[in-house]
Design a protein that fits this description.
375 residues, alpha+beta, Butyryl-Coa Dehydrogenase, subunit A, domain 1, 10 strands, 11 helices, Butyryl-CoA Dehydrogenase, subunit A, domain 2, four-stranded mixed sheet, Butyryl-CoA Dehydrogenase, subunit A, domain 3, 51% helix
Length: 375
């Protein structure tokens, strides 16, 4: 397994970090906390020009990456977004572009992918439902045939950036299994209600479908045949989320070390005390293990490995717990100032805590591992 970035990925990392340093400072992140939209729309379009939304989109639809491992390239971007606490629909939009590019019809690709790739439009994935379970067995949104299409009835929860989305990718239960639909967000009968979130920089919504009528052309893939595609979308979502969480944790540890080397107690920097050195060493070990696990999971998904589902659950279970533990310890290293609103560390903890819950908690993924391994 190769843990080194390719030359192309190093270029992507440099370009992304430089862009974020200019357009996504912590001052800007704090400014957007109270913004109804929750992210910088103009900045999002500029980011799309860097390839954030088009790496998984074929060139003929306005996309295209610069390397041979598009998912690996997205992971590099996701980690940088985590370091900057960038708000915006990076993960859900890429899940939707992936689903359309891999499983959609030519008509769907021609109609939707160019807008997503350019950043002019936004997509999001309606997967989980009230109750918070992130598995296919929990999908209960009802679908029934009607005329030349279907009617959707039910509610989806924890849908990221649904309030600004143009396209909803909806996972639903049909008579013979699971089916996904591509639904314009403005379709009659759809109601979007923002939910409260521990992460003030990320917008989640509850999306209600009340007798929503869609045509048969809105079906993504085959009717009753979406279980495997949903699994693959979940794997992509998890590797992007894990990479973002690694970036969140890495940046938190960096500025905590800077603080520990600058904060003087009893005539010397607190970071020079052996007891704290040991704690920092533990945190660094957990972080490196998180980064390696995230990379391994991403490479398995990129390769379509038979154990990809297992590896992404290993990554989520480990990183979800380790990231929160590391950042909590970093707060302790800051002392009283780490408990204040003015210190940025609580924003990083909020992002890591929400990421640990979305797409399945660490405990849920340990249970999923038991099922996958038949133990």
């Amino acid at each position: 397994m190769d843990f080194e970035l390719t030359e192309e990925q190093e270029l992507i990392q440099e370009m992304t970090r430089r862009f974020l340093e200019e357009r996504c400072t912590m001052g800007k992140v704090r400014e957007l906390l109270d913004d109804p939209t929750g992210f910088d729309r103009d900045g999002w379009r500029e980011a799309a020009e860097l390839g954030w939304t088009g790496i998984l989109v074929p060139e003929k639809y306005g996309g295209g990456g610069i390397g041979e491992t598009p998912i690996g390239d997205l992971v590099v971007i996701a980690e940088e977004l985590g370091r900057a606490l960038q708000p915006g629909p990076f993960l859900p939009t890429n899940v939707v572009t992936y689903a359309i590019a891999e499983f959609g019809s030519e008509e769907q690709a021609e109609k939707i992918l160019p807008g997503l790739a350019s950043g002019e439009q936004i997509g999001t994935w309606c997967f989980a439902e009230p109750g918070g379970r992130w598995d296919t067995e929990a999908i209960q949104l009802e679908t029934r045939p009607q005329g030349y299409g279907f009617v959707l009835q039910g509610t989806k929860s924890f849908v990221q950036d649904a309030h600004v989305a143009d396209h909803l990718l909806v996972a639903a239960r049909t008579a013979g299994g699971l089916t996904q639909f591509l639904v314009p967000a403005g379709t009659a009968g759809i109601t979007v209600k923002l939910m409260g979130s521990v992460d003030l920089g990320r917008r989640l919504a509850e999306v209600t479908f009340e007798n929503v009528q869609v045509s048969s052309s809105s079906v993504l893939g085959e009717v009753d045949g979406a279980a495997d595609t949903i699994e693959r979308q979940l794997q992509l979502a998890l590797v992007l989320q894990c990479a973002e969480t690694v970036g969140v944790t890495e940046r938190t540890l960096e500025f905590t070390l800077e603080y520990a080397n600058a904060r003087i107690a009893f005539g010397r920097p607190i970071g020079s005390y052996q007891a704290l050195k040991h704690r920092f060493a533990d945190m660094k070990m957990w972080l490196e293990a998180s980064a390696g696990t995230a990379t391994g999971a991403a490479q398995s998904v990129q390769a379509g490995a038979p154990d990809a589902a297992q590896l992404v659950s290993v990554a989520k279970a480990y990183i979800g717990d380790a990231s929160v533990a590391i950042i909590q310890d970093c707060i302790q290293m800051h002392g009283g100032i780490g408990q204040t609103w003015e210190n940025d560390i609580h924003l990083y903890l909020r992002r890591a805590t929400l990421n640990a819950a979305l797409f399945g908690s660490p405990a849920e993924h340990r249970e999923r591992l038991c099922t996958l391994l038949d133990v």
